[in-house]
Amino acid sequence: MKKQLLSLIERHNATVAALNRSELPVPGDKMFRAMEIWHKLACEGSDITIMARENGIDAKCNMQTGQITVYGSIRESDKDTEGVCPVCGGELEYNGDDIKTCGGGMHPWTCQKCGATGAEGYNEVFDGQHYNVRDKDGTPVPGREG
Ligand SMILES: [Zn+2]
Predict the structure, then answer these.
(1) What is the pTM of this model?
(2) What does the alpha-carbon distance between residue 55 and residue 58 come to, in Å, rounded to a whole number?
(3) CB atoms inside a 10 Å sphere around CB 53
(4) 44 and 97 share a domain?
């Protein structure tokens, strides 16, 4: 079962990666369709993650892309810290409404120190990643756009 789940995760991630390569950037009129596919992938990723956890595989799902990460394959340096600005290390202030996704969501935040904004992902608990990071002028932070 464990082996089958791991290969399922692999196939799911391959689909996520293929979609990211071929579908982006998405023309304006196709955005809705792309969001639908993304939402399906995120839901599927969430379901697979729950199954994996029930079978003793410590996995987490990126609620934005649907990409599944199996713990043990994450480098410590790649992990964000809950409540800490990924740009300057300042303290985050949560504001606005949560963005809900299947099995989790994202808390929008603003950094009190540098004015950066973003959203903290959670999958029942903090999912180990910040999304949509922008500086105080709204410019996406290199490497942190997703
Ligand atoms: Zn900051």
Answers:
(1) 0.49
(2) 9
(3) 13
(4) no
The domain containing residue 113 runs over which residues?
Answer: 81-146
CA of 116 relative to ligand 1 center, distance in Å: 5
How many whole angstroms from 72 Cα to the centroid of ligand 1? 28
What is the number of alpha carbons within 13 Å of residue 69 lying toward its C-beta?
Answer: 17
| Overall domain count for the chain | 2
pLDDT digit string, tens, across residues 38-95: 788 888 998 898 888 888 888 888 877 889 988 754 444 456 788 999 899 999 999 9
In a domain, 76, yes or no: no
> What confidence tens digit (pLDDT) does each residue in 101-114 have?
666 778 899 999 99
Same domain, 7 and 63: yes
User: In the chain, which residue ranges form alpha helices assigned H by DSSP?
Assistant: 2-23, 31-54
Ligand 1 centroid–CA 101 distance in Å is: 25
Cα-to-centroid distance, 98 and ligand 1 (Å): 20
